[in-house]
Amino acid sequence: MPRDLRKYFYDIDQACKLLVDFTSGKTLSDYMSDAMLRSAVERQVEVIGEALNQALRLEPTLSEKINHAGRIIAFRNRLIHGYASISDEVVWGVIEMYLPKLQEEVASLLDSSV
C-alpha cells in the first residue's frame, strides 16, 4: 500500500478511536445537550469522510473493501455544507450503527499493508 494511502487509513483509524472515546458511556441525550461533544464528534466524522475521499482518489477499488464508502463521504459533505439540516439523531445513529464496522475494515486494511 502506498504511503499516502496508508496515512489516510491511519487518520481514519485515529478518528474512529477518538469517536469511541468521545461517545463511550454517552447517550443521545448527552450528545444533544453537549455542544462540545457534538462539535468533537462532527469533526471526527468530517476527518473520516475527507480521508476516505482522498484515499479513494488514489485507489478507487478500495470502495470494494469499505462498506458504504460513498455514503460516508456524502455524509461528511452534508455535515459540512448542509449542517443546518442534519439532526442529532442521525449523527448519533451513524456513530452507533456504522462506526464499529468501519473500524474493523480500516484495521484490516492497515494490518494487510504492514
Category from helices, strands and their pairing: mainly alpha
Mean pLDDT: 94
Low-pLDDT windows of residues: none
Corresponding CATH architecture: Up-down Bundle
Work out the strand percent: under 5%
By DSSP (H or I, 4+ residues per run), the number of helices equals: 5
Shape: globular
Helix residue percentage: over 70%
Number of domains: 1
Task: Please outline the helices and strands.
Blueprint: H1 3-23, H2 28-33, H3 35-58, H4 69-81, H5 88-112
Account of the 3D structure:
Helix 1 (3-23) packs antiparallel against helix 3 (35-58) and helix 3 (35-58) crosses helix 4 (69-81). The termini are close together. By secondary structure, this protein is an all-alpha fold. It is globular, with a radius of gyration of 14 Å. The chain has a single domain (3-112), classed as Four Helix Bundle (Hemerythrin (Met), subunit A) (Up-down Bundle). It has helices at residues 3-23, 28-33, 35-58, 69-81, 88-112.
Short description:
With about 110 residues, this protein is an all-alpha fold. It has helices at about 5-25, 30-35, 35-60, 70-80, 90-110.
List the defining traits of the structure above.
114 residues, mainly alpha, Four Helix Bundle (Hemerythrin (Met), subunit A), 5 helices
